[in-house]
């Protein structure tokens, strides 16, 4: 059924809001990209900028994106010195446009591939080598809990005479 309606979609219906471009795939390789940050900044701001330089989405950045980060650095520095809602809002808005969060990247159709996860998934097969079958796990838990679940035998004085 179509979301928000009580009617099933028509069999030959075409999506009107289909994507205009495909996903852009980037690899999390932890390589440093972009220009160095120019100016005197504290360690927090330098770490913030380095995070952006080594982020997977930095592979897609153009010169204007790096300019945006350079212009944002003084605001980030000011926020670390004296936090304010206005500065945080400006930082959040600019970072959102650059793909800071997973939701931002989903909107921009940026997909991050992690080499170690891909390699693990290929070697593990359908069921990973570190996955315990559920029945074996249930038996293990049942065996450990069995003594605790067994009621104690009644004492001789508690038995009723026949």
Please, could you describe this protein's structure?
- This protein is mainly α.
- The protein has a domain at 44-119.
- It has six helices and two strands, in the order βααααβαα.
- The protein has helices at residues 43-53, 63-81, 85-97, 102-107, 115-124, 134-149; strands at residues 24-27, 110-113.
- Strands 1-2 form a two-stranded parallel ribbon.
- α1 (43-53) runs antiparallel to α2 (63-81).
- It starts with 23 loop residues before the first strand and ends in a 13-residue tail after the last helix.
Would you count the extended β strands for me? 2
The stretches of 5 or more residues where confidence is low (pLDDT under 50) are none
> Helix proportion of residues, in percent?
40-55%
Largest sheet: 2 strands, parallel
- Major sheet: order of its strands? 1-2
* Beta-strand content bin: under 5%
Number of helices: 6
Mean pLDDT: 83
The SS-based structural class is mainly alpha
Question: Distance N terminus to C terminus?
Answer: 67 Å
Overall geometry comes to: extended
Please compute the radius of gyration using only Cα atoms.
28 Å
């Amino acid at each position: 059924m179509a979301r928000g309606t009580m009617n099933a979609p028509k069999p030959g219906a075409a999506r009107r809001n289909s994507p205009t471009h495909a996903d852009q795939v980037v690899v999390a390789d932890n390589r440093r990209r972009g220009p160095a940050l120019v100016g005197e900044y504290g360690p927090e701001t330098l770490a913030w900028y380095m995070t952006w330089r080594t982020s997977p989405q930095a592979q897609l950045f153009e010169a204007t994106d790096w300019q945006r980060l350079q212009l944002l650095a003084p605001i980030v520095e000011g926020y670390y010195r004296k936090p304010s809602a206005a500065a945080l809002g400006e930082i959040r808005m600019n970072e959102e446009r650059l793909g800071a969060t997973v939701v931002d990247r989903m909107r921009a159709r940026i997909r991050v591939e992690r080499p170690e996860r891909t390699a693990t998934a290929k070697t593990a097969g359908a069921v990973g080598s570190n996955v315990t079958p559920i029945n074996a796990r249930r038996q293990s838990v049942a065996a450990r809990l069995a003594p605790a679940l067994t009621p104690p035998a009644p004492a001789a004085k508690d038995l009723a005479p026949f």
